[in-house]
Amino acid sequence: MPLDDALADSLDCVVEKVGNPAPRIYERLFQTHPHLKDLFVLDRDGAVRAEMIRLSFDALLDLEHEGHYARGLISTELTTHGNHGITPAQFAELFDIIRDVVREIVAERWQERHEQAWNRVLARVGDLVAAHRA
Ligand code: HEM
User: Fold this and answer.
1) CA 81 to ligand 1 centroid distance, Å
2) 91 CA distance to ligand 1 centroid (A)?
3) Domains in the chain, ordered, with CATH?
4) CA-CA 20 to 30 A from 49: which of 13, 24, 55, 97?
5) Nearest to 12 by CA among 57, 52, 55, 50
6) For 52-72, what is the mean pLDDT?
7) Contact at 8 Å (CB) between 5 and 113?
8) How far is 119 from 11, CA to CA, in rounded Å?
9) Ligand 1 centre and the CA of 124: distance in Å?
């Protein structure tokens, strides 16, 4: 399998093992930043939280390739989230949390090529966040 498919491969593995990883991702986010939970009080059915994770995965997969879609999405969402008081660092941290949770779920099937693919896309997220701040 080419290196470029490693990210998608890790996500396929997550779906196979647990289905939807979103509950674990939010559990980790709110463990680390309990006050962020209050921001979602109006999201009673969890639709916003589900959409955030879906789009975060779309952005990550896009960043493995051309990244045009991810660039626009991340820039727009950094602005809208900034209006809710979410800092660029917190925004970027969600992607780190997603990687940590994915790595834990993939567990014994996690390989060096997964680590490298995630490092690569997370560095790109970091660059986009830094460019937005500049
Ligand atoms: C710790 C990081 C984040 C927090 C605390 C957060 C929080 C929130 C909150 C409170 C809303 C609801 C806003 C409203 O109802 O007006 C929201 C909406 C949304 N979030 Fe996030 N978010 C985070 C990161 C992200 C990331 C990384 C993405 C995707 C790249 C994303 C994509 C979205 C989308 C698409 C919406 C729906 C509406 C909109 O565009 O604002 N969020 N987020």
Assistant:
1) 6
2) 8
3) 3-133 (1.10.490.10)
4) 13
5) 57
6) 94
7) no
8) 15
9) 19
Amino acid at 12: D
25's tokens: 């991702």
Calpha distance 61→121 (Å, rounded): 8
Whether 102 and 25 have beta carbons less than 8 Å apart is answered as: no
Separation CA 20–CA 40 (nearest Å): 19
Cα-atom radius of gyration of the chain, to the nearest Å?
15
Contact 14, 103 (CB under 8 A): no
118, 103 contact by CB (below 8 A): yes
Cα–Cα distance for residue pair 105/34, rounded to 1 Å = 23
What confidence category does residue 4 fall into, taking pLDDT thresholds of 50, 70 and 90?
low
- Going by alpha carbons, the residue nearest to atom 32 of ligand 1 is 52
Instruction: Using a cut of 0.85, tell me whether the model's pTM lies above it.
Output: yes
Measured from the Cα of 59, ligand 1's closest atom is 30
